[in-house]
Amino acid sequence: MKKLLSIFCIVSLLFSCQEALEENPKSLAVETFYNTNAEVEAALAAIYDPLRSDNAFGALYIAQLEAYTDYSFGRGSYGILTTFQGLDGNNEGRTQSMWNQFYLAIRNANIVILNVPDGANLSEEDKLKYIAEAKFLRAFVYFTMVKNWGGVPVRTEANMTEIEIPRNTAEEVYELIFEDLAFAEANLPGVAPLPGKPSLWAAKTVLADVHFYRQEYQQARDKSLEVISSENYSLVPVTVAEDFEKIYGPTVVTSSEEIFYLKFSRLSGSEGWFFVQFIHHPGSGLFGGGGYYAHYSDVVANSTLASMDRDDLRFQLWYPWNIGLGANSVLSKKFSDPDAAGGGRTAGNDYPFYRYADVLLMYAEADARASGSISSDAMEKLNMVHRRAYGYDPNMASEVDFELADYSAAMFYELVIKERGYETQMEGKRWLDLKRTGQVKERIKAATGKDVAEKHLLWPIPNSELNFNSLIDPATDQNPGY
Amino acid sequence: MNINLQLVGCLLLFLGMSHFSLAQEAQVRGKVTEEGMALPGVSILVKGTTQGTTSDIDGEYKLNVAPSSILVFSFIGYATQEVNVGDRSEINVVMIPDFTTLDDVVVVGYGTVKKSDLTGSVSSVKNEEINAFPAANVMQALSGRASGVQVKQNTGAPGAPVSVRIRGTNSIQGSNEPLYVIDGFPYTGSNPTIVSNNDIESMEILKDASATAIYGSRGANGVIIITTKRGKAGKTTVDFETSYGVQTIRKKLDLMNAEEYMQFYNEQAVNDNLAPYFSQQEIDNAGEGYDWQDLVFTNAPIKNTNFSVNGGSDKTQFSVSGTVFDQEGIIKGSSYKKYSIRAYFSQNINKMLSLDYGATLTKNSIETRNSSGGNRGGSMIGGAISAPPTLTPYNDDGSYTVLATAYPFISNVLINPLNQINEQTSESEANIVLANAALNFMPIEGLTLRIYGGVENNDSRSNNYTTLNYINSQGSASVSSSRNLSLLSENTLTYSKVFADRHSLTALIGATYQDFSSEFLNGSGTGFLSDITESYDLGSAENPGIPGTGYSYSVLISYLARVNYSLDNKYLFTASMRTDGSSKYSDGNKWGYFPSAAFAWKVKEENFLKDVSAISELKFRTSFGYTGSQAIGAYATLNQLNSGKTVFGDALYNTFAPGTTLPGNLRWETTQQADVGFDIGFMQNRLILTVDAYIKNTKDLLNTVQLPSSLGFVRTIQNVGEIQNKGLELTADALIFDSDFKWNVNANISFNRTNVVKLYGGQDILGGSVNVTFINDNTSLLREGEQMSVFFGYMNDGYDENGKEIYKDLSGAEGVPDGLINQFDKAIIGNPNPDFYYGINSVMSYKNFDLSLFIQGSQGNDIVNVSAIGNTLDYGFGLNMLKEVYDDHWTPENADAKYPVITRNLNMRYSDRLVEDGSFVRLRNIQLAYNLPVQNLGIDWLRNLQIYGSGQNLLTLTKYSWWDPEVNSQGGSNAIGQGIDHYSYPTAKSITFGIKVGL
After folding, report:
1. What letter would DSSP give residue B692?
2. How large is the ipTM?
């Protein structure tokens, strides 16, 4: 009888067990998502997440590119990059981390592009808008990658679940970039719904930049002119160097100069821009949480800074600081946040991917190169940026203006390239800008006296890809020198 | 163990041993005593019958027996005695505590068995060994006490968990920690810190498959069964023990003094074509400066007080105890406190029903100051040896010196350790309840239905606060609280019977249900106006953090069965089966089956050995079976979306995306284990040897499979891979002298080899990542055909003409040396696994004095000394160095120096230079005790009184150069990164005095 009782206990357990072993997590599942506007907007926002990671634009990407320019030096583990001899193991690891984050962003974009067409509660109009944003970001990431790695495997919504795919050529990557940007240009809203989201003008700007990078100057000129002609943007006036805070400062939410930025915030103490910690010294207090001073320059030893006009307010964004590397070392305070609450991701500054100043300079150079001559319009655009840097009204002629008559076309290109170098310091753009000209070795040699190794031109396809993708052969598909 | 159950067991054992006899009966009465004290609850049986009684509260009994009868007196923990009745009417018996352990009853899964009837490999550790010295964690006390059990002390921080490996490492992905079963409850915590060491009656370590398979999917790493103290019927006893100890750092590192520091860095400056940093005058005035170790490390008290009351009647037995354990750490500010109250009650309701109830309530609180690891002095412990001896902790105005900016050439992350000690608090508290109750129903002889239920609840909270005085701080706080709850229901039916005098059978069937839920909540904030609120007003933070919450729930449903059969008390068979259903796995893979079988042969019982007096015991054992490991958390097979935050404008927006691990279709890891062993006793078991050899194969190993990262998912988990453990264990227990001078020695030694048999696609798995900027590499790997987690790095090949280290060119991309030093030149350069580890325990007593010594050691294991990178090689950042570097570095005149040239332009790799021999022998404990002869002094209200003095870790023999060889920075949960020392909290030595009083 008692035996029966225990058997009853066991039997009663049996009945309930199938049900008891079901899992019901209190979390969202992939299979039932992407149906409402709120869901898709959260999925779109997840594309920005990996881009904002410390391992990508949050720090490592820009820290890498700022270590080999004509105006700055890397220090510590970034020092080896300043020799222009390719990456050591440490920096290879860093580019691998970037690769992983970029592909995570691409995957998150592909998920949106794949799932949104079937979204149950979405209007057709919204679907186009969402897909356009995802494609814009996908193109932006592939553009970043193709500049630094050359051809990379092209993952789209069509092949996103295939485990192994081969490396595509750079041209194939550009094909997708153009296709995605055309879609984005046609379907993105005229006004970004929020600062940090792309508008169709952002799409046109990126398109102009892609053409510019490919030396397709006519298209670059036309697209940048479209952006300028929209009259949506204007340069923020500056009278003293401190006024640059109105552009780069930690509390700026947006400005008239902003076309497409990656946004960071002091809020929550973990959504700030980590890179700010890389460029400061803990003693300067310009970053509240300390500082690595991984990037510095020298107003004597560095020819670019040595020759920079002391009245250029942008020169005053460098401050002298003794870091044990001689009496003339300087650090950049372009991005500073003394009130950042502690180490790591606490600075409120944003990463300016595209400012109006970029577009003006891009237009000036593309216009001149496309026509082989300097138009007064091109010269005016250059002067707008130049004047502002000396504290003058960008739209009024000033005493620092360059005069059309003083320059040949070839001299003008050099003038714009120099101006771009001053204007985009610490924005992670200079190395690629020099590469774009096709004369990076000569230009670095001229500025620094150093020879650029061939292997320095492209980052290696990382081991996280090579070791696990049999369709990419490390012997034949790897970039030169690795 | 409940006394009634014992009785049932005794009944069964003696049934059938002799024939029932009928004769004229007469009353016999008497008293059972131990050392003059009445001993109640002793079983008194007429041999060969079921007739018998138990002694009452005064130790007295009466029984009607025939004169030809033999009375059998038995009681757990005492030698069984047989007495011929003859014509006596009064038989007084003095019970003698049993020192021959083979007659002990040991607790096994879901039951007990006489040690002599064991078929599996089980080690027992008793209360006296567990309490030999004060230890915050009972597993520290177990270190070296049992063969096959390797206890790794990961750090010396008070309250830090230890990791335990029973017969090696089985899993890459999952936990390798054993399952702890406390009074029948499979405990979910990683270390059984809920129990106070004094409250433990015994610990049984189940090692082979025959013993562990009954725990199925949780048995693969071995099982440790903890049984707390029980009350006994009779006089109520009161025990009180208190001890006080002082811990000190075992050794200091010999660092450069201020003058040497200045000269050293001037040499670096000169070598690097810079102007010297310090003038001759500064050097002349420098003197010794500060040894920051003196500022950080302190003498720390450790206090332990335990109070217990045990007693009961025939009907009710109880044991109630309380513990206060209070340890400060040798790093200022760190501490561990434990308060525990425990009760265990047993009630015989009637002849058929009894009730057991046990409950433990423990509060643990840990204050940590063990910021370890880090690069270039970026952690508190790193800062303690890296801080320049030239600098003081405080400025003249009382503010903290900012070391990171003190010199232009100094590390920008160097922490002022005192700033962190004083201005950063990190405290965690846990309130843990473990309660269980069982109703035992014995409707007919030999049949027991046990209905058992239990609950384990762990409410924890941590508070962290960084004050405004912390360098570069605006005040930051974070709190987190979590609750882990596990409910258990177990129903077992046990039947024991002896058939035809020679077939003894015990059968068990059961069904169990256990669920595991966990929830957490955390919050944070930065930017506070004042330190007064600490972490208790997050709402006032200038930047409140994003709160986090989480939830997980899983269920394990199991059915189990076991049969123990013995023939003629010579041939013992055990077979068991458990099936486990877990919610964590996907449909179709939820159920696993874990059978085992064992056989033992008591050779001593055979006629040919019965009369060989030299051999008092001989038993062969062999077993085979399967156990499992769950190795994954809840929901690991589902496609879940993770939430995150991003920024648009200056506001936060939610993100939802899949993680970076592609969910897979997973099933159990299965471990197959074969074991052979024997127990042999000589000279009335004055010497007992136990030997076991085993081989374990773990298959379907859950393994991280790397995916091409362009997929967006960087890894998935698959059931591939195989690991093998094989080993040999020996235990010897010898009673060398047994007179006024008594000397007992117990020694054990274990040999284990863990080999990686198969990995996914033959791919190496790298691990033990170390990034101290100067060197950034994986220290260890898993490779097919090699031992588990061996060290993998470059091989040092002396210095070049400039004094920079060069490496051996072992191979290249084409498989031959190519003149380049790259990843192809890495080789296996060390092994964190010991060749063997051992413990020796010696207890001597003479008259009223006891002297015990406990020695423990590990031989043949290597340590990667990551700390040495910063303080012997990384010369560019103003870190203080070992004095040895100052004395013996490369110069053109000293080309075969131990250390390279002093320059900031070294580009060094992770090489065999960093691998050191981690073998050690340690006098873990030495204790001298004096027992007051209370009987002789006629103090009848006192049962015993002992005062003792002891020392822990007073002597350690090791070649390891850093603080202490017992170190494992990456902890027990990381299967690959083992044997790494990265600025770990050092282990202390201590001296303890205590008193034990029994009433």
Report:
1. E
2. 0.93
